[in-house]
Automatic annotation (TrEMBL):
Gene giving rise to this polypeptide: pyrG
Positions of Mg(2+) binding: D74, E142
Record organism: Campylobacter devanensis
InterPro entries linked to this entry: Class_I_gatase-like (IPR029062), CTP_synthase (IPR004468), CTP_synthase_N (IPR017456), GATASE (IPR017926), GATase1_CTP_Synthase (IPR033828), P-loop_NTPase (IPR027417)
Family stated for the protein in its record: Belongs to the CTP synthase family.
Name of the featured protein: CTP synthase
Protein role: Catalyzes the ATP-dependent amination of UTP to CTP with either L-glutamine or ammonia as the source of nitrogen. Regulates intracellular CTP levels through interactions with the four ribonucleotide triphosphates.
Reaction equations catalysed: UTP + NH4(+) + ATP = CTP + ADP + phosphate + 2 H(+); L-glutamine + H2O = L-glutamate + NH4(+); UTP + L-glutamine + ATP + H2O = CTP + L-glutamate + ADP + phosphate + 2 H(+)
Subunit structure: Homotetramer.
Protein's pathway: Pyrimidine metabolism; CTP biosynthesis via de novo pathway; CTP from UDP: step 2/2
Gene Ontology MF terms: ATP binding; CTP synthase activity; glutaminase activity; identical protein binding; metal ion binding
Amino acid sequence: MSKETKYIFVTGGVLSSLGKGIAAASIATLLKNVGYKVSMLKADPYINVDPGTMSPLEHGEVFVTDDGAETDLDLGHYERFLDEDLSQDNNFTTGKVYSSVIERERRGDYLGKTIQVIPHIVGDIVDRIKKAGEGNDILIVEIGGTVGDIEGLPFLEAIRALRSEVGKSNGMFIHLTLVPYIKVAGELKTKPTQHSVGELRRIGISPDMIICRTEMPLNRELKDKIAASCGIERNAVIESPDMQSIYQVPLSFLNQNILEPIAQNLNLKNPKPNMQNWDNLVKRVIAPSTEVNLAFVGKYIDLKESYKSLTESIIHAGANLDTKVNIQWCDSEKIDSNNVAETLKDCDAILVAGGFGPRGVSGKIEAIKFARENKIPYLGICLGMQLSMIEFAKNVLKLEDANSIEFDENCKNPIIYLIDSFIDANGNKQLRTHTSPLGGTMRLGGYECDLLKGSLLAKIYNNANKIKERHRHRYEANPKYRAEFEKAGLIVSGESDGLIEAVEIKDHPFFLGVQFHPEFTSRLTKPNPAILGFIKAGIEYKNAR
Ligand code: GLN
């Protein structure tokens, strides 16, 4: 295989939310299953330094990498498709680029030169792309946003320049557009695609392939029309119709021989991917043998994008258990002690997801109490673990005014509190103070966790002693109450450098709270053990009903 990295640049046209990330990840998956070493990069033209401070309502989930970067949710898709851990080098924004260029300018690194978009900003973007490509056969680079956005221009200039530098056989452009179906005319329209390609050409980029998002299949004639009007090869017009599952997309692309034009462009020899395992799993996503009902208790249920990794991890577990997991979305703000039994009566498992701020907390606590008392399988993630301890403290230990200081700074019994320091994975003491600004003050990324032998947690992780999972939180369980909890039956089954990472109830078939986010490491081909164990417990509960 060549020592040089080949680049596939993916841009989007017409409008956003077409699934550019899924298309890019699908191509990456096919190439990985040919045997190439493939990585991916998302370059985002917005100005935020990272999405860490962006509201999930506006931007969907913040995906956390193993090395602790808060990244765009597309990185989650990349990892789930590619089954590779990505890092902070696999996502950057305009904000990050400008920060580092300005920092260098202040330091005097540019020796008095005038700092300009070209060459300095564009040069920094090119350097970052090259860095992400190092050591890989192929790097897929997705440019965020839509062609025509003002803020995207330096990024497009960067990929134009980089492709000139590496040559045609080492770089290709794929443009994803929308081919809308106009109902009243009964017609698919190619004009927006032509305009969007025209816009790209104006800045010096001629796409080598066009992927058309569409509700309807495109016939040969229409594909030929797009090829002719956009100046690309006939076999390089690929359709991407709406699918029941995103995991079908690589298979749909493969059926259309997408690797043929890619191989022609990049000079690859007869790429034949092995998608057998993938194909089997997708069949179980589409037509599973059984089903189970899961109550998903959260406060962002109108915006399911903010729980993307979690809902995907549930799909992975379901596929591996040949089960359809029906998610019953329960708005925690609407749950109270009067309606909790009615709300949760049909569910076989209850999940309380992570979250920030006091909204919806009391409803989550009611759901947890219901799961605990009725012995329904329960998984609490991050805030879901913290609240399961608060619920236990209130209702079992009868501790008055038990709370998290996130919700009441002066509560009498701070079950969840803020620690000023903790020891990080490298053994360094990290300082954390309550008064820090919001951005960049969380415990982030992968940390090792020691599992209690014989515990439920150890069992579902195949009797491992140590696991590594990712975090995104500010507050911690207060060890002061540990003995009291354990005496009453809520035991600590996971620990990391003295921090409480997991709790479970001894006298319950499956009641688990984890401070980490198991969903971030789940992949279609490798479901996360905690999620898998939880769904399995739900199936057992259903069968025993
Ligand atoms: N708000 C809690 C904390 O900061 C939990 C965070 C989460 O659920 N991701 O610790």
